[in-house]
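FYI - complex with zinc ion, inputs then prediction.
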Amino acid sequence: MHDDRTLVEARLKRVLEERIRPAVYPESVPLTVSVWTAPGEPVPVAEGLAAPRSPIAVGDAWGAPWSTSWLTVAGTVPESWAGRTVEALIDLGFDANMPGFQCEGLVYRPDGSPVKGLNPQNQWVRIAAPAAGGEPVLLHVEAAANPVILDYHPFLPTELGDKETAGDKPQYRLARMDLAVFDETVWQLVLDLEVLGELMAELPADGARRWELLRAVERALDTIDLQDVNGTAAAARSHLVEVLAAPAAPSAHRIGAIGHAHIDSAWLWPLRETVRKVARTAANMTALLEDEPDFLYTMSQAQQFAWIKEHRPEVYARVKKAVADGRFVPAGGMWVESDTNMPSSEAMARQFVHGKRFFLAEFGIENEEAWLPDTFGFTGGLPQIIRNAGSKWLLTQKISWSQINRFPHHTFLWEGIDGTRIFTHFPPVDTYNCSMKGSEIAHAARNFKDKGVARHSLAPTGWGDGGGGTTREMVGKAARLRDLEGSAAVRWQRPAEFFAEAEAEYPKPPVWVGELYLELHRATLTSQARTKQGNRRSENLLREAELWCATAALRTGLAYPYEQLDRIWKTVLLHQFHDILPGSSIAWVHREAEATYAGLAAELEELIGAAQRALAGDPAGGRELVFNGAPHGRSAVPAGGAAVAVAGPGNCAVTAREGGGFVLDNGLLRVVVDGDGLVVSSVDAASGREAVAPGARANLLQLHPDFPNMWDAWDVDQFYRNTVTDLLAADEVAVHAEGPAEVAVRVARSFGSSTVTQTLTLRAGSGRLDIDTEVDWHEAEKFLKLAFPLDVHTERYAAETQFGHQFRPTHTNTSWDAAKFEACNHRFVHLAEPGWGVALATPSTYGHDVTRAVRAEDGGTTTTVRFSLLRAPRFPDPRTDQGRHRFRHSLVPGAEIGDAVREGYAVGLPERRVTGSAEAVRPLVELDQDALVVSAVKLADDGSGDLVVRVYESGGGRARGRLATSFALAAAVPCDLLERPWNGTRGEVVADGDGVRLALRPFELVTLRLTPAR
Ligand SMILES: [Zn+2]
């Protein structure tokens, strides 16, 4: 037989696009449209409905960037349409090639009740089925003119990302605004032909099934009268029944599809717009659930449910009902889909606490999967946190975005730094926006790496970010793919059911140990430095506020600010969303985030101050008390307590150095700063060992060009290192402080359009060189690093993460090692040879790199740690990070891992001084073992008055110790993160009088609920 395959395939394409698809709506009449544009920010629904309208017509421009227009559409169903299905088609000027990321609408009835959203691929509103004919139609549309930020020519700098710079040029033109007859038979024919045509394209050309499909499609096309598609569609469909009924192979891949819309809680739109995006999509999805009995939908992020509850209660009522019916499934159990690299131990824990608690309180549901499809890498600390939150599964697809290495599994056990293993699934469809295309379904089946031992994968299905979620077309296609020869088999499935099935079929999955590093978006550890510092400052202040408020509550009866802390935590957690904390949002988002963090800091300082004043007593007492919020004692002040300040004698000295520069010495550390303001020597007295590599200089600022190939705020590409400028020239190197308690040298430099001032300080009794760096940054597309070349020979280094640290290589042996050229630390990195090590601590820098070189002169190894201070990408915020910044870094030579942990806490939690009458404040709890670290002291969230203390083993070894309470203890119960009794602790927790004996395994965390005797 002659091969006419390509001819028939091309025929299908043209007939489908030009004749069949347009026949879905064979008749239409125009609607009349009128408009009112809100003068500023969005208004309440009642106000928008009541506002006076002016005429507007199809083709007219509307919508200044970020403005809201209230449209009213009115018409009458023609009498001749009686008995037909009638829909309104409302095209706000959509670009259907981009399913989201543009204008959107929410349709209301005249009484203010929401109908559904309007999105680029979801422009219909059902009016009547069947129509009576003659009925009036009146609908209102709240239309948001969100500008397109990420366009066909992506990553070009734009001023549209902030309403303050976006201007007022209309962004859209009204397109089709019609009442139309909907021909369901033609619509079904479109789906038949799409499913078969797309499947056909994935099948081998020498296979019989492909030709069977081709011939069936050809017969269907032959049957269609192109002048009467509506009259012949049913006959055409009859030729497709047989090929659609042929069942899938027994070995076919099984896809559990779940309706979904990945809605970024802020990104290329401000937080306030996400509130509306979520409502529109939830309105769509609750409507679709009513129309489609087999369909299931899942939505993550408790914050987004909370927004709907607060701002669109009518939509929330529909969501609640659908959740109760088991069809609208809350997923993930986190407050938002956060970043996981940067949030602190406690913040990562609280993401689950607040997320799960919301789902429990609102729906009585506790889900067991962590749902993070789009997060930029996963720390080795996360598995234990997931487990301690009462969950056991993880879903993400993001690692498929890695630039260099293909991850070897799709379903596996992921083992964290403490040994906790979490059953993890990466959907092989490689997207969280599956649309049921044949190419996606075939890719999932082909791509699945666990074939032969496992058969199930998950496919989050629907358009996110303003795409409106799953479409009725996707549901229609899924129905055809349920059991279809040549295809993977698709059915709607809840995430928990998928995981249970996948786990049951795969009893011995492979294991991946340690972090899931994303080989992309590495610059998100650095971009938008002020947002990152706001996060870290808030985390530190929350620690202090909980500690001192709990102490004051138990000691003085001061009311514990449960509701205020709850609200502040939720705000901090929201801003850890995976496009806010990573610095990848528009300028508007980061401008607001900085203001929000400033407000939180003021509130938390108030709380801390009030609690400390209550503990210190009458200021007339005149005693200056030093409060220590860190988990280790210092300057004779116990951790979590206060003591009267004692000024030591101090022995700091600074002397001029021959040839320029200065020598700083405090008896513990001797630091030599040269005439360029660089550190050429740092020797700790205990070991007498030099930390700075021979011939090298530390505290070196280095400037690189930084123009990645894509994703400016997200990415730094490896080639940035090829070009570097050392900032050597100093405008000034001078003594800044000179006293027994403290000596300091000040260094000023200028480069490009920027200036930097550094203060290098040595304090009495401290083995730490503190470097305070102030930058007035006015560069574009540059990367500023602070380098410490150290004389350390090691193949790996430790970087702090949640509840411990993770090791990374200092070399680039394999492509996996080389890909980690920019990585995350929390408060320290630590490098060591046996018997001696060095720590670099920082309260606010997350990004860093570590490299090694062997010196020609002496054959020794130089290991260089460089902190990533600032970048200057121009997309999506064209002025990212311009202006003043302040950073602090500390060099701690002679540090063991325990010293690194201690100094990491100390640099972020400075002492506070309060005048009062008390002689001291005894800590509520004290630990007698340094490796056991308290990460939180707080009152239980249930308001019982119980104290909750979270402790973890911080050194990576085993630790035994006793946690003593300074109050009479009635009961001590190990708990999960939600403060519920839990016996999942692997170490020992034994009540012991007014205390608890603990024996924890490496990096193990334990949450204790301590009930005071009353
Ligand atoms: Zn996302």
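The chain is about 25% helix and 30% strand. The pocket of zinc ion is lined by residues 262, 264, 374, 578 (CB under 6 Å).
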